[in-house]
Design goal:
Blueprint (H helix, E strand, L loop, with lengths): L2 H13 L2 H4 L3 H8 L6 E2 H4 L3 H6 L3 H7 L6 E3 L5 E4 L14 H21 L20 E6 L12 H11 L5 E6 L3 E6 L6 H8 L2 E4 L2 E7 L2 H39 L2 E2 L5 E2 L4 E3 L2 E3 L2 H14 L4 E2 L2 H10 L6 H4 L3 E8 L7 E7 L4 E4 L1 H12 L1
Antiparallel strand pairs: 1-3, 2-3, 4-6, 4-8, 5-6, 7-8, 9-10, 11-12, 13-14, 14-15, 15-16
Helix pairs in contact: 1-6, 11-14
Length: 369
């Protein structure tokens, strides 16, 4: 090992040591905020001592190969304490507590906002980004094996059931054998409580009860050795689609609107609904789909969600009759169409009537042009 590598190794090990993390609130929060306790090497590169070394990400990863205190992720972009060692308690300096409480409050507000503004495409699927495919959480699912019953689980059925029951989890990969299989869940902005909801529950598919267990240790290494190639093969079309969508978005931004008949630019429509600004109609649609996806059957809409739908229903062709004796809104399955969700107006006498939010949004767009 060169002297330079030894110096890098020593410095990074110090950053992740008990001594430093007990006082370093930035690294402490970064590590504790990651489900697998990873720290991005990019954050380390921003440290002044590392900057003065003039090194790159790959050099940090290479210097830690012989470390007994710090391990590197398979993609060479993250580091953590060996064995996901627990963090020391953070020592609050004078005046730090108030700043930390304020920061925590902002982070919680941000987390709530992320849940409320979950991005879905036109088909109701999660809009994925490149970060969703980095260091995913591997979940192994299985059911009781019985000889001769001819049962064979379908990965798509498992994936659909998990998505329906856990709409805040992003599934980026799935595979299945006869009685078991694996899911890859995005760790990007993942909340631990949402993952625990999956691993603590039992889901029924084809009359079989499936359990879900987070893969770790040697079993995790075994998964990547056996299925790593298949994972990379399966995610390539999704990564290409992300690149394609980014290209389209850039083009739309350059166009900055559409042309009128005379060739002049027409300003792109934007909307303010219930005090929230939406840059285009697709964001309005995404917000409506997110509410439908997240809310349980029969769950009453409250707060901003209620105000959002209340503003949109004004654009329904039959607004007056739909809104008569209004009590509140609910989300649930359409009474005439299986596996189709919609909104309901619940009246003061307890009766309820479904309505099409798509028609409301379509009329909003037409009347705004």
């Amino acid at each position: 090992m060169s002297a330079n590598q030894a110096e890098i190794k020593k410095q990074v090990e110090f950053y992740l040591s008990d001594k430093n993390l007990a006082n370093d609130s930035f690294f402490h929060s970064k590590i504790s905020g990651n489900v697998e306790h990873w720290l991005d090497i990019a954050d380390i590169l921003n440290c002044n001592k590392i900057k003065r070394m003039g090194i790159k990400e790959a050099e940090i990863a290479a210097s830690l190969k012989s470390s007994s205190e710090v391990e590197v992720s398979e993609d060479g972009k993250k580091v953590r304490r060996v064995g996901k060692k627990a963090l020391p308690e953070l020592i609050h300096k004078e005046g730090q507590k108030k700043r930390d409480v304020k920061a925590q409050s902002k982070e919680e507000e941000k987390g709530d906002a992320e849940d409320d503004t979950i991005q879905l495409d036109e088909r109701g699927n999660h809009i994925l980004v490149n970060a969703d495919f980095e260091n995913p959480i591997i979940i192994h699912f299985k059911t009781e094996a019985k000889d001769g019953d001819g049962f064979k689980v379908n990965w798509k059925e498992i994936e659909n059931e998990v998505k329906q029951k856990n709409p805040l989890l992003k599934i980026v990969y799935s595979r299945a054998d006869q009685y078991e299989g694996d899911l890859a869940i995005s760790s990007h902005k993942l909340k631990q409580v949402n993952l625990e909801k999956l691993t603590s529950a039992t889901l029924k598919v084809q009359e079989k009860n499936f359990t879900f267990i987070k893969t770790a240790g040697e079993e995790l290494k075994d998964f990547w050795q056996k299925q790593g190639g298949h994972y990379q093969f399966c995610i390539q079309p999704k990564l290409r689609n992300i690149k394609k969508q980014q290209k389209i978005a850039k083009q739309q931004k350059r166009d900055a609107g559409t042309s009128n008949d005379n060739g002049s630019k027409r300003a792109k429509l934007s909307f303010e609904i219930a005090g929230v600004y939406y840059t285009d109609i697709s964001k309005v649609k995404s917000k409506a789909r997110a509410i439908l996806t997240i809310k349980k059957d029969g769950e009453k809409l409250t707060g901003n969600d209620e105000e959002f739908i209340k503003e949109l229903i004004k654009f329904h062709d039959k607004h007056d009759s739909k809104f008569k004796d209004f009590g509140h809104f609910e989300a649930g399955e359409h009474p005439n169409y299986e596996k189709t969700r919609c909104f309901f107006v619940v009246r003061n006498d307890g009766t309820k009537e479904d309505f099409s939010i798509s028609k409301c949004i379509m009329n909003l767009e037409k009347q705004s042009q």
